[in-house]
Amino acid sequence: MWSLLLTAGYLRADDVRYEHGEAVVSLAIPNVEVNNVWRRSFLSWLQRSGGGEASVKRLHQALLSGQTQDLARLLAKLVQNALSYHDTGLGPDSAPERVYQAFTLGLLVSLEPGWRVRSNRESGLGRADVLILPSAPGRPGVVLEFKRVWVEEGETPDQALNDAQRQITERRYAAELWAAGSSVVYAVAIAFEGKRVWARGEQVSPPA
């Protein structure tokens, strides 16, 4: 569906930057009408894959309340039902971090308009994988960082989660969430290996 929207010219270029001489473009859904089409199509596909809107709502609740054990369990179930072996990092041509990030963005699109969901957006000293910004002050905000567990190199899930949490802290990804008026900010690290998912979260202290 995302590829169809891109090919048809229905996505807006939010940001263009250059890495190693190549353009890297951040795309966004431009309006409510296209967002509704995307949301209905994604949920319909998810329903056929064994998920559904109720599962997505429970995931939202876990995410916005910092319940990372519930988040990991719900996300793992959705991944197992909806994604394939080749999608999740075991195939030779896979790009697993991008797949997990794109899949999660699809799960989060129905948070709009109460929250603004942004991917690879500049915040603090770098670019966070996913930011969930409140549309109005007084609501929670969330930053998500994804890491593949490189088991073939001896890495453990705990090490990957530590790496993601350290990146969130050192690069100050929570800065834009505080600027948006978040009542509380959760930093959530998500690690994965194939279809196995781990999550760890912490509440971020407001800037001094």
Please give a structural write-up:
This protein is α+β, with helices and mostly antiparallel strands. The chain has one domain. Helices cover 39% and strands 28% of the residues. It contains seven helices and seven strands. The chain has helices at residues 2-7, 32-48, 53-64, 68-82, 96-108, 157-170, 175-179, and strands at residues 12-19, 22-28, 115-123, 126-134, 141-148, 185-193, 196-204. Strands 3-4-5-6-7 form a five-stranded mixed beta sheet, sandwiched between helices. A hairpin with a 2-residue loop joins strand 6 and strand 7. Helix 3 (53-64) runs antiparallel to helix 4 (68-82). The longest helix is centred in the first third of the chain and has 17 residues, at 32-48. The protein is globular and about 40 Å long. It starts with a helix and ends with a strand.
Mean pLDDT: 79
Helical run tally:
7
Distance between the termini: 43 Å
Shape: globular
Instruction: Spell the H/E element sequence.
Output: HEEHHHHEEEHHEE
Number of domains: 1
Ranges where pLDDT stays below 50 over 5 or more residues in a row are none
Assign the structural class, choosing from mainly alpha, mainly beta, alpha/beta, alpha+beta, or little secondary structure.
alpha+beta
Write the topology of this structure.
Elements: H1 2-7, E1 12-19, E2 22-28, H2 32-48, H3 53-64, H4 68-82, H5 96-108, E3 115-123, E4 126-134, E5 141-148, H6 157-170, H7 175-179, E6 185-193, E7 196-204
Parallel strand pairs: 5-6
Antiparallel strand pairs: 1-2, 3-4, 4-5, 6-7
Helix pairs in contact: 3-4
